[in-house]
Amino acid sequence: MDNAFEFIKQKGGLTTEVNYPNKGIDGTCNTQKAASYAATISGYEDIPANNEKGLLQAVANQPVSVAIDAGGNASFTLVVCSLDHVVRI
Q: How far apart are CA 54 and CA 47, in angstroms?
């Protein structure tokens, strides 16, 4: 997930799905629509696995993204990066 956060920081932010819907096809980026930022981030930090207190403190201050091991359930596995699923809390 760190790579995704670095990308968002480098690009300046994220637009909305309403403003720039994913049509499921490859094409060229409309940089004007993409630059209409609905959210930005200035930084991020990693919380160690199984640190419930750290997670509670983080959730009290900002959205938190967590990686979930779906236990080998093939419907969740993303083979490209060996990550099962990401959820925002």
A: 6
